[in-house]
């Protein structure tokens, strides 16, 4: 492996420490090297805090070495004032002579300006190092910037006989949860929730399951709740309306007395492309990624519009015989794993 690729790969590893906490900023990683030895590392702080380059520079004990060191970073250093000062300015201030960048930043306020600022100050700049790997790492941020929508992950669990939920009569006879997957698979889902910015479900899922949509079997921040509630059937007695995190309700009803204080209501036209309108709403709210967890009708909306990036499908060992059929995805899997007796299959729509 070439030396620059080695350290950009390390940047990606370091950056993953920020997964789920940096939104709406990208999770950037930075490494500072002097005479082939790492003297500093950093990743993006939670939103409003220092960026990766700042944290990496601050972690260097002997700051005099910076003027002879190389800074590696997954994404082009910012050149504008936002919540924090430009990272490019700090690099210049410390006279770091060489900067190696994995990926150019498509953000309109950066987009090559960071590199230009560094070069104008006399820095040697190399970029597009491990570009493919950096694009995969920054897929949420890139989708948001380039496609003006969040990165969309479809997730569902289905039985061995292809059902996503049991028949209503079974629920009426026994209202306890009908788990399709084992506890280990469910824990993984909670880990995923901690990694993404939002979670989206439809009205029927709320009415039938009364889910909390938070992170419980893992540690981390619970995602923004997004609820499709066309006719405002979800009231205050449901867990999703507890006000614990930002909540967005997508409806067709304007200015209703049913509006709950503190909840964000967004009105769309359900006779048109619903998935596209939801993407526009989430983009407006600076949502970089969303997990669509159900139910079947909601997932199908995104499949039919071909508005999704990844699908993660669990198949448990249970059988329902009859009930609500799971969506059908005519794609070739990109990965498959076994979680005890459950099977988890990954699909990509890139």
From TrEMBL:
Query: What is the top-level taxon of the source organism?
Result: Bacteria
- InterPro entries, alphabetically? APOBEC/CMP_deaminase_Zn-bd, CMP_dCMP_dom, Cytidine_deaminase-like, DHFR-like_dom_sf, Eubact_RibD, RibDG_C, Riboflavin_Biosynth_HTPR
Q: Cofactor note from UniProt?
A: Binds 1 zinc ion.
Pfam short name (any one): RibD_C
Query: Keyword Oxidoreductase: yes or no?
Result: yes
Task: Report the pathway entry.
Answer: Cofactor biosynthesis; riboflavin biosynthesis; 5-amino-6-(D-ribitylamino)uracil from GTP: step 2/4; Cofactor biosynthesis; riboflavin biosynthesis; 5-amino-6-(D-ribitylamino)uracil from GTP: step 3/4
Reaction equation(s) it catalyzes: 2,5-diamino-6-hydroxy-4-(5-phosphoribosylamino)-pyrimidine + H2O + H(+) = 5-amino-6-(5-phospho-D-ribosylamino)uracil + NH4(+); 5-amino-6-(5-phospho-D-ribitylamino)uracil + NADP(+) = 5-amino-6-(5-phospho-D-ribosylamino)uracil + NADPH + H(+)
Look up the record and name the cofactor or cofactors this protein needs.
Zn(2+)
MF-aspect GO terms: 5-amino-6-(5-phosphoribosylamino)uracil reductase activity; diaminohydroxyphosphoribosylaminopyrimidine deaminase activity
Question: PROSITE patterns per the record?
Answer: CYT_DCMP_DEAMINASES_1 (PS00903), CYT_DCMP_DEAMINASES_2 (PS51747)
Q: Where is the CMP/dCMP-type deaminase domain?
A: 2-126
Q: Which family does it belong to?
A: In the N-terminal section; belongs to the cytidine and deoxycytidylate deaminase family.
Q: What does this protein do?
A: Converts 2,5-diamino-6-(ribosylamino)-4(3h)-pyrimidinone 5'-phosphate into 5-amino-6-(ribosylamino)-2,4(1h,3h)-pyrimidinedione 5'-phosphate.
Could you identify this protein by its name? Riboflavin biosynthesis protein RibD
Q: Which organism is it from?
A: Sediminicola arcticus
Supply the source organism's classification. Bacteria, Pseudomonadati, Bacteroidota, Flavobacteriia, Flavobacteriales
- Gene name for this UniProt entry: ribD
């Amino acid at each position: 492996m070439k030396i620059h690729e080695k350290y950009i790969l390390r940047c990606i590893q370091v950056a993953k420490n920020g997964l789920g906490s940096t939104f709406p900023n990208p999770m950037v990683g930075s490494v500072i090297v002097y005479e082939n030895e790492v003297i500093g590392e950093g990743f993006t702080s939670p939103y409003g805090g220092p960026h990766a380059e700042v944290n990496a520079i601050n972690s260097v004990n002997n700051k005099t070495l910076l003027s002879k060191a190389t800074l590696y970073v997954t994404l082009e250093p910012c050149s504008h004032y936002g919540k924090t000062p430009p990272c490019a300015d700090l690099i210049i201030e410390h006279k770091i002579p060489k900067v190696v960048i994995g990926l150019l930043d498509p953000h309109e306020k950066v987009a090559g300006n960071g590199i230009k600022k560094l070069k104008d100050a006399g820095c040697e700049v190399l970029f597009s190092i491990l570009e493919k790997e950096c694009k995969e790492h920054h897929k949420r941020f890139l989708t948001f910037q380039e496609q003006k929508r969040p990165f969309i992950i479809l997730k569902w669990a289905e039985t061995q006989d292809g059902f996503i939920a049991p028949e209503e009569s079974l629920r009426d006879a026994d209202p306890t949860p009908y788990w399709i997957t084992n506890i280990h698979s469910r824990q993984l889902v909670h880990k995923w929730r901690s990694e993404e910015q939002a979670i989206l479900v439809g009205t029927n899922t709320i009415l039938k399951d009364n889910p909390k949509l938070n992170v419980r079997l893992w540690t981390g921040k619970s995602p923004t709740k997004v609820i499709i509630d066309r006719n405002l059937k979800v009231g205050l007695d449901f867990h999703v309306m507890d006000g614990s995190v930002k909540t967005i309700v997508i409806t067709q009803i304007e200015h209703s007395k049913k509006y709950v204080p503190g909840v964000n209501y967004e009105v769309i036209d359900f006779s048109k492309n619903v998935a596209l309108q939801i993407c526009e709403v989430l983009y407006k709210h600076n949502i970089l990624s969303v997990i669509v967890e159900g139910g079947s009708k909601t997932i199908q909306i995104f499949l039919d519009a071909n508005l999704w990036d990844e699908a993660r499908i669990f198949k448990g060992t249970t059988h329902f015989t009859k009930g609500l059929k799971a969506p059908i995805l005519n794609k070739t899997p990109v990965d498959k794993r076994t979680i005890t007796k459950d099977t988890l299959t990954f699909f990509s729509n890139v």
